[in-house]
Queue: 4 jobs
Job 1
Amino acid sequence: MTAYAIAHLRRPATDLPDEVLDYMERIQSTLDPYQGRFLVHGAPRTEVLEGTFDQAVVIIGFPDYDRARDWYHSTAYQQLLPQRTDHLDGDCLLIDGVPPGYEAAATAATLRAAQEA
């Protein structure tokens, strides 16, 4: 099942530091061994439909959760990571996707039955 690394980054008040640009130039080489690929990077075109949002979003897809986790904890990425975290505030998480054929209605029915039990 596909897994995702999702980062919600607060935009800096000034131009991006060279360290962040270097991070951006080098991150793909840390993703390649784990078959990670960018699905969203910064979201330059964003339409806020509810609430407020002035941050950047990054979504990286992986074939499965183990590869996503192995990438994040890899020596190569951990050595690179401070170039982003020392200069940009944000949140990052790993999350499983849903299986093929997933239906929210079926999940709702399961939750409803559990609540009524």
Note: The first strand starts at residue 3 and ends at 10.
Job 2
Amino acid sequence: MERAILELLDRRGPSATICPSDAARAVYAEDGDGWRDLMEPARRAARRLVEAGEVEITQRGRPVEPTTARGPIRIRRTG
């Protein structure tokens, strides 16, 4: 999942963001909406990438603390 997040971000501009659902859809190999079951794993992967210093999690364009963020989030590269 971490690889999917980083690959999706690499395909976009340096300040672009993705939704965890983008990563969940990229990893889910079947038709249908089974990717929804991968939403929490995608959010956890994003949190691990925050800990590694690779990305930051944002809400309304501002970085937020990953452990306390509630509701829709976006993921972007740090720096």
Note: The first helix runs from residue 2 to 10.
Job 3
Amino acid sequence: MTATGEPPVDLRAFHNEVAGHLLAAAAREEARAAAARFAAGLDWLPTAERAEVERRFAAEHLALARASWERTARRGEELRGEYEAVYRRLRARLLAGLLLGLALVVAVAVAVPAVG
């Protein structure tokens, strides 16, 4: 709690939420613009039908963008898992190497006085 009694603001979550809203708004605008460009070539259609074509085109454009974002997010999660596994293996190998080196130093320290 803050001094005013409100819970602390998670700025990273807030930033991600705002970025998500901005990205979605940009995608909607891009879909509308693409739909308008597409429908502009259909000047032989009545206005109401052209508006319906634009609406359906924009909806399909947004659906494709969403599917692409979901695939990208899934792949990011897969890569994160793969990289974390590699990191854990490297960390374990490093620890094993350090312990082996320490054991070697201790063995040499014990053996040198015994020789002398």
Note: The mean pLDDT is 91.
Job 4
Amino acid sequence: MKHIPVNPAALPTPSGYSHGTLAGNTLHLGGQTALDADMKIVPGGIVEQFRQAFSNVLTTLREAGGLPEDLVSVMIYLTDIPDYQAHGKEIGRVWRELAGPVYPAMAGIGCTALWQPEAMIEILGVAVIPEERLVRPSR
């Protein structure tokens, strides 16, 4: 089985990584921080960073024909777990706005730092996309 990189034009051009890798109908979604189109981490705190990072994940998912309900697991790396917990209700509202009421298997993992020093969150995941919707990007 050939692995196919998935790199949406709407996201910053990757160098040395892919935003996603399609293996069969399973899409492995690379870690996304809150980078915007200008390659800057969005300001405003954990809720805004969650919105941007999760939107970036969903952009890659949609590029391969996936929908949020195709997510089977999501891992969230956090530099400040208490801050995330304190804003949990707001983050939950953002999740439901972007992905609906379906929640995959999830993990929240504390870490000391992320690739961009101002990043507070990085989200990655795995999705299984039904064949009838699957889009295999050309290399």
Note: Residues 1 and 24 are 7 Å apart (CA to CA).
